[in-house]
Fold:
Amino acid sequence: MKEHKRISTLNLILIIQLVIMIILSTVITKTISKTTKQNSIEHMQTITDERAKIILNYVHNAENTLTYYSKAEQVVNLLSDPSNQEYIKKAQAFTEDYSNSVENIEGLWIGEWNTHCIAHTNPGTVGITTRKDPTSLKQLQDAMLEAGDKVYNTGIIISPASGAQIVSMYKAVYDENGEPMGFVGLGIYTNRLVENLDSLSIKGFEHSTYSMINVSNSKYIFNNNLELIDSVVDHKSLEKICKQYKGAVNSDNGYFYYENKGTNYISIYNYIPEYGWILMIDDTKKEVFTLTNVMRLYMLIFAIVIIGLMIVFYFFNKRQEQTNKKLAASIVKNNKTKDSLYTAMFRDVLTDVNNRVSFSMDIDEMKPSKDKPYYFVMYNIADFSIVNSQYGNDTGDWLLVRTVDILKQVFKGSKIYRTGSDEFIVAIQADTPDNKMIMNNVNDAFQRLSAKHNTPVGKLSFKFRASVVKKSNNINSSVITVLKDMVNKFNGSIGLTDMNT
Structure:
């Protein structure tokens, strides 16, 4: 009896242990699966958000380009007197020159309020009225007026002129009384943006794809199947989400599941209310939740194979630790990628100095005064295209880097910007109103740049042009335009102007 009772107790203990372990295994499996599943979704959400920022930066840069162009003197003068031949000539020349500094441009133009084109990057387009239909014309005019002093962005469309996909935008130009004189327009190809997005792979999600939809018309903007671009979505889940966000004014993100041809997918999305776009990254549930499924399998084995429970549990902890390290490493890598993308927006990769976008943002932080004015010095490599064609691009790149090295040596502590393919601007805040020392440095740098250099193809000298602008009050982007005009005017010598007089 006692022996029988002892065996029953052991069996009961084993049964209780088994039940406890099964319960623990079930609870642990659900908890870990839920956490790992959420980590995978958050990881993909982070990647989606980063790509949405890349798209926004690309569009915002284009809008800034049009804004700076709209404020140019040549544009304002022409719209104030569209029949003035001198203004027409200057505006056309400025438009062509300005467009040369804009990458991936389809077209840049100036139009009267009735859309009659009076300057265009393509001179053959000048004289054409783009919107003859009164209804279409009024819609455009009302949209520009509603935008006020901001850019009216029509979004990413298929250009009727080139048949290619572009970012299309307009901006009204107003007279002193606040009445619209006309407008400026810009088209930027999206192919460079698509190339950048395509080049960004996602570790662990090799079969993922991305797409973007305009919720206002439920049409694809981007899709890995090029035939679907500019076509209406044909999936109930996508139709539902377009309807949900149509007209929404707040940014949002999330995910949803759907089935396509017998395969279950998860779509992580980011809604961009500024333009009414939804960016999505899609992948199979099997790939996204691979780690979750593996863990479930292990925990099932743990519950069944009680004999090896401790060993398996130890193995699971080790596996979980490795997984957390991988996730942490992925987050660190994503942050580094984000920082690199941010740096690429504001730095010139070749010369490692600030670029034109950075200059446009930095001028808002510059606070000149009469006692401490700012000097802006532009150095332009004359006939730079000839240098590339005659001596090769390697020599041209060497010359750009060498130019920056000399400017850094002469203007120590000053900010240097590459604002064009062959032009650099140095921003210097003087300690005193006297410009003698600064002009000495300007001349010193000019002499060094113009001297003979030991280049990769031998000893050569290059022709430079320079100009200097002094500012004691508010600074804006027109500084670049003035510097360019002076460089062309004082060809071979150094021109100085005080923009405060």
Remarks:
- Residues 89 and 119 are 9 Å apart (CA to CA).
